[in-house]
Structure formats: C-alpha cells, structure tokens
C-alpha cells in the first residue's frame, strides 16, 4: 500500500525529491528508489526527520514497537496518517506526544491500480488543513471519504476494505458460470471482468441509483429477470448484507483487542 501511495503521489506531480521511505529490506529499498527516484532509508527515524506528513504503513502488530523506537525524534511536527488496520486513534495518540495530529485511514487493495476506496477519520488535534492533506493523499490512488466519526471505519472495513474479496468471488463465479454454459474460459473471464468494471463505471459516472440501472437492463419476461429471480431465491442480497455485517463485527473485535 505504501508503494501504491508513492506511485500515486509521483503520478500526481509531487516531486520525487520531496518523498522518502524506510524499509528494513535492502531489496525493497532498492526497488522503491529505482522505481520512483525517491530517497530510502533503513532507519525509520531518518525517514521521519523533517517530514511534514508521515504515513504509518506497517502491520498492526508492530505499530507500538515502531513508534516507541522513534521516541527520541520530533514526533509532534508531522501529520501522522496511519493505515494500520484496527489500530484506533486513541492507541496511536497514546504512543505519540501530546498534541500529535493523527488521521486514521482505511484504504483497500485496488489502490494498487489507482482505483482505491479509502475512508479517513481524524483526531481532535488535526486541523481542517490536515484532513484536506490526508484526503488529497488518498485521492491520488482513488476516492476518499471522510467519516464523521472513527467508529464508522469498522463498517468501512466491512464494506470497501473487505469488499474486493467479495467481488473477486463474484467474478470467479460469474466466469465459471460462463464456462459451464459452454464459453471458453479465457472469454468467460474476460467478459466477466469487463462486465463488472463497466457496470461499476456506469453507476459511478451516471450517478443513477443501482436499482434504476438494474431496471434499465431488466425487460418484462426477459432473460435478466429470470437470472435475477434465481439470485434472489439463492439469498444473494441477504448473503451480501451478512458478509458486510460479519466483517464489520470482526473489525470491531480486533480494534477492541
């Protein structure tokens, strides 16, 4: 995800000289330096020094050790943006000096192809300019929505954070169904991928309600209504509801732990 953000910022026109990254793996540092022309460091403190904005892109399990190792640095100056899933702002604030400005973000994997969906929530110390900076950061790799309160990030995790996996399962099923009906596998998957991409693009760009777009495809007594009838009989809609609800509950459990 850090690599996706770096790529998005560079593509958006931010000078590579203004970016820096740290990674314990020499091979990863070399890759980032060569791919984007940015400075890289083995030590996190060297990357944080003098930074206006720091993205905390580490596993949730190491957030505490990473921040404690930076204790001797000036940690009040930068805006801290965390993409560590399930780590609440209160915990981050407890590991940073008083007054540290924090934005917690929940991006998703399509950010890797600049088509991500991210939600953010800010600490009380973060200013409007801080929130705008965080929004601009994630808009380089997709769309960004600011949640009115941090608790909603659990629902975001259940919907857009886990959502790509639901879509991948649907894509696999749609392609396999085409194969079952006699289509060559390559053609079935190619058509399935483009169908989902095109449907999402149509909904996004027209701004019409999905139900209205569904009705536009559904002729009385036609093929589409026959297919939709089977989806409803199979509990498709209810299964999606339950998937989002289950992932949301699990996100809350992880955050509480």
- Strand percent estimate: 5-15%
Kindly identify the CATH topology of the largest domain.
Rossmann fold
The number of helical segments is: 12
Roughly how much helix do the residues carry, as a percent range? 40-55%
| Strands, total number | 7
Strand order of the largest sheet: 3-4-5-6-7
Assigned CATH class of the largest domain: Alpha Beta
Give the mean pLDDT: 95
Beginning-to-end CA distance, first to last residue: 24 Å
CATH level 4 superfamily of the largest domain? NAD(P)-binding Rossmann-like Domain
Shape field: elongated
User: What is the CATH architecture descriptor of the largest domain?
Assistant: 3-Layer(aba) Sandwich
Structural class determined from secondary elements: alpha/beta
Radius of gyration: 21 Å
Give the total of domains. 2
């Amino acid at each position: 995800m850090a690599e996706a953000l770096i790529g998005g910022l560079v593509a958006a026109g931010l000078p590579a000289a203004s970016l820096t990254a740290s990674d314990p793996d020499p091979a990863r540092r070399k890759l980032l330096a060569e791919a984007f022309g940015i400075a890289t460091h083995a030590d996190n403190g060297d990357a944080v020094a003098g930074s206006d904005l720091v993205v905390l892109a580490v596993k949730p399990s190491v957030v505490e050790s990473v921040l404690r190792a930076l204790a001797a640095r000036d940690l009040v100056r930068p805006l801290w943006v965390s993409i560590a899933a399930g780590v609440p702002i209160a915990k981050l604030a407890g590991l940073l000096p008083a007054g540290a400005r924090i934005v917690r973000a929940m991006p998703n994997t399509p950010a890797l192809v600049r088509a991500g969906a991210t939600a953010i929530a800010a600490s009380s110390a973060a200013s409007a300019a801080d929130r705008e900076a965080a929004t601009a950061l994630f808009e380089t790799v997709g769309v960004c929505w600011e949640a009115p309160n941090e608790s909603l990030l659990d629902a975001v995790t259940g919907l857009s954070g886990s959502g790509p996996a639901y879509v991948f399962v649907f894509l696999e099923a749609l392609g396999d169904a085409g194969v079952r009906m006699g289509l060559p596998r390559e053609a079935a998957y190619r058509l399935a991928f483009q169908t989902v991409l095109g449907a999402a693009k149509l909904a996004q760009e027209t701004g019409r309600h999905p139900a209205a777009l569904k009705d536009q495809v559904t002729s009385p007594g036609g093929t589409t209504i026959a297919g939709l009838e089977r989806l409803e009989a199979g509990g498709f809609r209810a299964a999606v509801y339950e998937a989002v609800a289950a992932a949301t509950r699990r996100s809350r459990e992880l955050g509480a732990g």
